[in-house]
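TASK: fixed-backbone design
INPUT:
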């Protein structure tokens, strides 16, 4: 009988976790390679996720528990695949693992972070606040082990974190490692990045402080975000009582993203409920081209639409400007249904930015074909290599999980065709 080889999963978001855990629970060895210091991907950055509107942990925690109970799933964080060669059932893979500078003795006490004198932009919060160079991405991170960012850390000349750590967990002399694996199948699950809205001149992203992206809005509303879940605007910390959402900020535009990002309408409807629940006297206005809430999501649209404090305006936004004295934001748009121009003032504006496959800017090192927008062309993949979820098209968590579950079976079949 053929040897039962490992399945390699590149990317540790919901898609990658699902593929790995399903493969392992079916009796196959699975290894995840994740480039950030933690598993969970973008879902970990959401406040709540539809359809159930539960916090990310309700889905992620179950997966982490399944992993802890199954020795057949292992993972590398801060790791990327450098080289792939071979064929179905017999791929040689080279993995580069960056140093974390913190070992398994870390108990997550935060003493290193308190002692660290260096501040850097908080990437997990999309730059809305700062974090230390000795940090943990968020309070539910898995693994719950601190990390030292060597792009900002002053190294041995400072070493205040080393002195502060009572557990001998910090090793500033850790070096990058190379890991070579032989695997039977490979699952590409490297997910998505947010479209860079600063390319949309007229919408003020990056120039107007109270114009934020939809992912920044997720962080602002999250209990473990920069404002501890209180929806406050960035310029002055004022409570946001009047908000606008601008749909298709880049999507469905041949000069930017010539496709629908699938989840942005649902994301804005969801985020309108964050505000409405937090401040009962608040108002939200959603500017849209078409509201797209496929399948059973339509019912969520009806529910939000029935709220008298939520206004849905069909019309493209022409311009967003800032009042320099108050920092309020003015949106100019055409109300197509009423046939008139609108000029309205808001405390904050959220740009519903689309999903861009991570492979648009960072290709996976193998002979893979991509669409002009960076999506993997599945038919171009060699036998035994599979792509899941948002690498093929923008999708939600439910579709990513379904796709990854199917691919887990296919990857096991490939792994069993070992040479
Ligand atoms: C504003 C907004 C709100 C959303 N809200 C919802 C919601 O409420 N409900 C819902 O169902 N969906 C929602 N989504 C969509 C949801 O985020 C995606 O469906 C989900 O993240 C897909 O998971 P994934 O694992 O495919 O990708 P990701 O979550 O992007 O995970 C990919 C992982 O791969 C890692 N990675 C990337 N490149 C490499 C590499 N080269 N090597 C190793 N690792 C790599 C990344 O660090 C990441 O951990 C929302 C999206 C947006 C933009």
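OUTPUT:
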């Amino acid at each position: 009988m053929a040897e039962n080889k490992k399945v390699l999963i590149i990317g540790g978001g919901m898609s990658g976790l699902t593929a790995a855990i399903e493969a392992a629970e079916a009796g196959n060895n699975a290894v995840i390679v994740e480039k950030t210091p933690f598993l969970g991907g973008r879902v970990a950055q959401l406040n709540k996720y539809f359809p159930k509107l539960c916090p990310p942990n309700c889905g992620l925690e179950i997966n982490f528990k399944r992993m802890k109970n199954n020795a057949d799933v292992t993972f590398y964080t801060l790791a990327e695949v450098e080289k792939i060669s071979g064929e179905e059932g017999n791929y040689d893979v080279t993995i580069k693992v960056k140093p974390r500078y913190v070992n398994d003795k870390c108990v997550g006490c935060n003493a290193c972070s308190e002692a660290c004198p260096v501040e850097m932009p908080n990437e997990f919060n999309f730059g809305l606040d700062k974090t230390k160079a000795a940090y943990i991405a968020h309070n539910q991170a898995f693994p719950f082990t601190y990390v030292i960012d060597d792009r900002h850390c002053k190294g041995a000349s400072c070493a205040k974190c080393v002195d502060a750590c009572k557990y001998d967990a910090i090793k500033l002399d850790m070096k990058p490692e190379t890991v070579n694996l032989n695997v039977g199948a490979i699952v590409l699950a490297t997910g998505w990045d947010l479209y860079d809205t600063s390319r949309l001149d007229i919408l003020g992203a990056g120039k107007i402080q109270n114009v934020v992206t939809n992912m920044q809005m997720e962080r602002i509303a999250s209990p473990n975000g920069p404002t501890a879940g209180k929806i406050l605007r960035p310029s002055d910390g004022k409570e946001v009582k009047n908000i606008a959402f601008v749909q298709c900020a880049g999507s469905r535009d041949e000069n930017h993203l010539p496709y629908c990002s699938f989840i942005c309408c649902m994301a804005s409807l969801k985020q309108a409920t964050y505000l409405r629940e937090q401040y009962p006297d608040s108002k939200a206005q959603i500017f849209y081209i078409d509201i797209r809430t496929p399948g059973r999501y339509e019912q969520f649209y009806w529910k939000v639409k029935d709220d008298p404090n939520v206004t849905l305006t069909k019309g493209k936004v022409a311009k967003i400007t800032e009042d320099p004295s108050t920092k309020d934001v003015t949106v100019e748009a055409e109300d197509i249904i009423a046939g008139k121009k609108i000029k309205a003032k808001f405390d904050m504006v959220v740009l519903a930015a689309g999903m861009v496959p991570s492979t648009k800017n960072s290709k996976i090192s193998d002979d893979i074909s991509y669409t002009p927008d960076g999506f993997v062309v599945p038919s171009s993949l060699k036998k035994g290599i599979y792509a899941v979820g948002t690498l093929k098209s923008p999708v939600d968590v439910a579709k990513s999980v379904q796709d990854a579950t199917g691919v887990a079976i296919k990857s096991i079949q490939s792994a069993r065709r070992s040479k």
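COMMENT: Residues 10-16, 33-36, 41-43, 46, 49-50, 80, 189-192, 214-215, 218, 263, 267, 270, 355, 358, 362, 389-390, 395-398, 400 surround flavin-adenine dinucleotide (CB under 6 Å).
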